[in-house]
Amino acid sequence: MSFDDFGVERRFHEAWDAIRIARPVSFSLFTFGETELPYYLVCHPQSDGATVKITEGEIKVTRPMLITPDNMDAEFRNFFESQEEHEMVQFLMKRTVIPQLKFDNTSHSSDIRSDSVEEAVALLNRKLDAEEQERVAVLTAPPELAGIALLRYALERVIESQPHNVQELRERGFLP
């Protein structure tokens, strides 16, 4: 292990801690096939007096039906823009047991406007409550960590779903 690994680890922890899941959801990913994870991402203003950037999107998490050497590694589409983000993801994926999943993000700017992150979260919570949308998460992050915020949300859903998924595999006779 080189000392460079510690710098990556430190940056990763700082980035992870800068992200907040302001409106968590509690549902399990499908054991087989594809699960959709809708979200709103509220990014902090880039300068004083600027408005927050609100992105509406959806992450599709797909589990392969057959595991082959070609699909052993996790795959992320439309998540990361910088090399630093890519390095953090590589750091994380080397330390997890989440292979064979495909993550595909689609997003667009939201029509909602706000001057502060807290106000944007409150507006989104009221909107989602009024629409009875229990499966839509609200995330907050600095703008340079948008991709990492989406990664964190998706991975937390995967990890929290594992006990349910293992139980379903047992019920279907795939595990003892």
Can you describe what's shown?
The chain has a six-stranded mixed β-sheet with strand order 1-6-2-3-5-4, sandwiched between helices. The chain is globular and about 60 Å long. It contains four helices and six strands. The protein has helices at residues 3-18, 83-93, 117-130, 146-171, and strands at residues 20-23, 33-43, 53-63, 75-77, 102-109, 137-141. Helix content is 38%, strand content 24%. The model has no long low-confidence stretch (mean pLDDT 81). α1 (3-18) packs across α2. The longest helix has 26 residues, at 146-171. It has 176 residues and is α/β, with parallel strands linked by helices.
What attributes characterize this protein structure?
38% helix, 4 helices, 176 residues, 6-stranded mixed β-sheet, 6 strands, alpha/beta, globular, 24% strand
Q: What would you say about this model in short?
A:
The protein has 176 residues and is α/β, with parallel strands linked by helices. Helix content is 38%, strand content 24%.
Order of neighbouring strands in the sheet with most strands: 1-6-2-3-5-4
Describe the largest sheet. Answer: 6 strands, mixed
**Terminal-residue CA separation:** 38 Å
Low-confidence stretches: none
Draw up the topology in text.
Elements: H1 3-18, E1 20-23, E2 33-43, E3 53-63, E4 75-77, H2 83-93, E5 102-109, H3 117-130, E6 137-141, H4 146-171
Parallel strand pairs: 2-6, 4-5
Antiparallel strand pairs: 1-6, 2-3, 3-5
